[in-house]
Structures are given as structure tokens and as C-alpha cells.
Records
---
Amino acid sequence: MHRTKVRVVEDALDANNTIAQANRADFDREHVTVINLMSAPGAGKTTLLERALDGIAEEGTRIGVLEGDVQGSFDADRLAVLNIPVVQLNTDNGFGGECHLDANMVRSALPGVPLPEMDVLIVENVGNLVCPAEFRIGEDARIMVCSVTEGEDKPLKYPLMFRACELVVINKIDLLQYLEFDVDRLEANILQVNPQATVMRTSAKTGEGIDAFRAWLKAQPTRFFEDDDHEHEHGEHTHTHSHGAHSHSHEHADHDHEHAPA
Ligand code: MG
Ligand code: ZN
């Protein structure tokens, strides 16, 4: 019985990866760099975007947002005033109110996303520290936002999420003065589970650290689409495994991966 259950999960993740690759092909065709933005509920993803994307269009960076929520368009409405393309994707609209986005949900939303108008698409995932890390959506990079109200031990308790991303943003650092919170210990725990992670500290409220975050976002298209005459082959990089924890960089894109079971 246990075996059957595992099999089903593997099949679901295989199906997800197939659709993620179809998304990836669409993003590549339009030369759009896609970022999967993840966090627990209330870590400040939307506020961070409000702050970081304010004025970015005027600076010549073409960024759009696909806003994932179970219900409602509160967050999309907040971002729409920034004069950037924002599309709402609700998981209770045909997807059973799922607590994460998967490749199929993103695919269903793509006809409404004006990819030719953007160089970067940020997909704000549903707030959840567990399953979003399991489902690749065809993204190039993943950001995890954690806040100083969540506890220093979160990376050790939810290692998959922290391992799956390239950038970890520690948000709400303006609150540190009111909390007994060891932010250095949090950062050490992040780096323990993901030594390659870039870690930033921000306050979406005061604006501290936002310049660095914005610079990271603006640098993404040149990372993935350096020159248009070049042939870009990053088709094979979206792998999710039921045993989690892998993230593959683009540099080794054009070959088959063989993963021995862990
Ligand atoms: Mg939000
Ligand atoms: Zn979920």
C-alpha cells in the first residue's frame, strides 16, 4: 500500500515536469526570465514586490507579475497601480483551492500573460512553506522570502524550501529591535541547508535592502539571455524529484540528467 502511494506521487510529479517544460519552452521563445517567488503566508512577498517594482518600469526593466492566491485579487490589485502587467491566478478557480501553484495552473494562466511585453515574469506563489517547493513551474530561478517573525529554526524544519531556491530574502528586519530574534543564526541555518544561497536582508517597510533586491531582479535577464544571437538551450533543467532538494543550474542545460535514487 505504501508503495502504491509513492508511485502515485512520482507520476504526479512527472506529469508536472512535462508541463513545466512546455511552460519553459514558451518562456524561452519570448525570452522571458521567470522567477518563482515563495514564502509562508504573511512573510511579505507582495509588499516586497510593491516596494521593489515601484518605478522599475520607468528605469527600463520590463517586469510582469503572475499573482497566485487561493482566492481574491487583493495582491494583484495592490501591484496593478505600479503600471506593470499583473495577472491574477486563483487556485480555487478550477484547481480545488490548492495551497501551491503547479505547472498546469501556470500554463492555464499563460494565455492571459502578455509575455512579449516583459523580460522578467515574477510568479508570486501561494503562501506555503511546504508544497510550492515540490512543483516546478518552468522557472529559471526561485526566491524564498522568510521574515524575522517566523523563527530562526525554519530552514532546519523546512529544508526543501530553503534548498530549492537561489536567493533567500530575510524580510521585516525593521522589527528586529522589538524581537528577541537572532538574525545571524537564521542566516547560518539558511546557509547550512543551502550553502549556495544568496541571502539578503530587507525591510519592505523602511526600504532597507530593497536596492540590492531590485538589483538582483534586474540582473536576471542578462544571466539567462545574455545575447540574442546566441542559441539558448535550457530545456532540460526543470526537474522535481519526490525526494526533493535538487536544483539544477542552466549551465548544464543541454543533456539528459540521470539521477540515481537517493
Ligand atoms: Mg501576496
Ligand atoms: Zn499545496
---
Amino acid sequence: MKKVLITKDIPSKGVELLEEAGLEVSVYRGESSLTDEELSVKCKEVDLLMNVGQYRLSKTFLEDNKHLKGIALASVGYDHIDLATATALNIPVSNTPDVLSGATADVAFLLMLAVSRKAFARGREILDGKWKGFGFTQELGQELNGKTLGILGLGRIGIEMAKKAKGAYNMEIIYHNRNRNEEAEQLLGARYVDFDTLLAEGDVISVHTNLSKETLHKFNAEAFKKMKSNAIFINTARGSIHHEADLTAALQNGEIWGAGLDVTDPEPMSAESPLLQMSNVCVLPHIGSATVETRTAMVEMASKNLIAVISGDKMPQILNADIYK
Ligand code: 8YV
């Protein structure tokens, strides 16, 4: 009987599918995350891995666990695995695209709206017993109607965000990508611009790109200086696409107006972060895909990819298709 390790508790549907396919499933339900070493020890006892919670699967980890027959990432992002090494070792790796696009875009939209109305800080005034009564001119927000939304990475999640912004606030959509997205241009009237124009014209700039060498700290002091002083920065992709100290300084110096983050660097964000004291900042604990529907769909997809491996089939959501050549 082949064995699978799942690194965090998941909706039961994912486990059921694996068991129905004849796999022996062990789920790590510990409160604290496994260390690299503990994960490696556990992996020695199994044939397949479902990586839930983005454990870093480095070159060393993969070389120590080259017996693995397949790895399913329960995430769309795959910056936490050394894919080149997995390919060299002939380990198929899958991710979970599409199924989380709507839920993640919902969080980007939620942050955009919440920041524009300073909703988290205003709500906290009540929680902390600090609401001094109705004010007419204090802590005012700004409206989104007809403003320009700049998207870095107009892929599956970016398009969902653009659709919501267009539908709700008739926002003008501009975007910057490695490749032009003609479908989105037709569907949403989205305008392709270079990165500097995106920075200069966006009233809201929302990040929906992968973390890579090219996007690491792409939003740094230089980039924030090029943004409008009324701009809102939203990141639901990966925390290290923005430089957190530079973002803090840009907000403190009034170079940009506000920020909404579902991802931070590091995660969890320190409770001491000055960002948490700012009324124009909303921070969430990486909840982009955290709905019952989406998390269930993610683990179903991950399970089906592992089942494909034991059935001798190609993983449907394979990331390193080269291994099948
Ligand atoms: C997940 C994510 O919550 O898909 C991603 O890349 O960041 C989130 O949807 C996380 O990866 C859970 O494993």
C-alpha cells in the first residue's frame, strides 16, 4: 500500500479521495509547524507528499527525499519548491491553479475597499473603547468610483480582481505583465502599460504575480516614489514582492496613501510592526484562499494529482512537465 503524508489538517474530502484510491494517509495535525528535519524524517516513511501550508522544499530536502514519487502543493504559488531539482530527480510536482482565483481576488477587493475607508482602524476604535464620537472631517476615506486600478500580473487571479473592480466601481484597468493578455484587453478594456506607467497612473495598484527573481522586492523605495500620493497598494500574492521597510517609509512619508496586505514578509508579521498602527493600512493573515469551498477544491485537486501518480498517469496540474518527455 502506498503512503501519503499531508502536512496540515485538510477538509475531509481530500483524505477520502486518497483513501478510496487505496492509499494509506497520514495527516500531521500538530499545532506548530514541522521543522525541516522533522518533515524530512516523516517523508522517509511515505511515497507521496501533499504540501499544505507551504513548507519550503529545498534542494537539500529533495535530494534527501528522492524516493518520493510525487509532490502535490496545496497552493497555486510554487516559489517554495526547488522545481529544477525536483525535475532533475524525476519527481512530478503539481499545484492548484484556477480553483482559488475568485476567493483570492475577493480578498484583494476586500482590502482595496477596507483601506479606502480605513475600515480596520475605525472598527478597532470601537473594540478598544477609543471612539470619541462622530467626527465630520477626521480620518476620511476616499472613493474608488471611476479610479484607475493598476494590476501587476493580469493572470487568473488578476482578471478576477479586475472584473470585480470594473463591475463594482467602473474602474479603468491598466496592467503590466511579461506577456500581453489580449483576452483581458477585449473583455475589460484593460490597457497594457510599462511598469513605470503602472506606478504613475494607478490609484490602486494590486499585485497578482508570482514571486521570482524578477519580482522580489519589485515594490521598493524607488517604485513607491513613482506612485501617486493618493495611491493604495494591495498585495495578496507574496510578501517579499514588496520591501516591507520601504513600504513602511513610503506610508510614513506620505508618498502613497494606504496599503492592504494579505501577505507579509516575514509571515507572521511582527505584532510590533509600525504598519499595524497606521489607520490607512489593513493587514490580514494570508487568508486569500481560506473559504470552505476553495480549500475543499484545492485539496480535491491536490489529491487527484497524487492519485494520478499511483495510477501511472500524468499529473493533471503538473508544474514540471519536462519529466514526462
Ligand atoms: C494558500 C497561497 O493558502 O495558493 C497559494 O499560493 O498562498 C494560498 O492560497 C497556501 O498556499 C496554503 O498552502
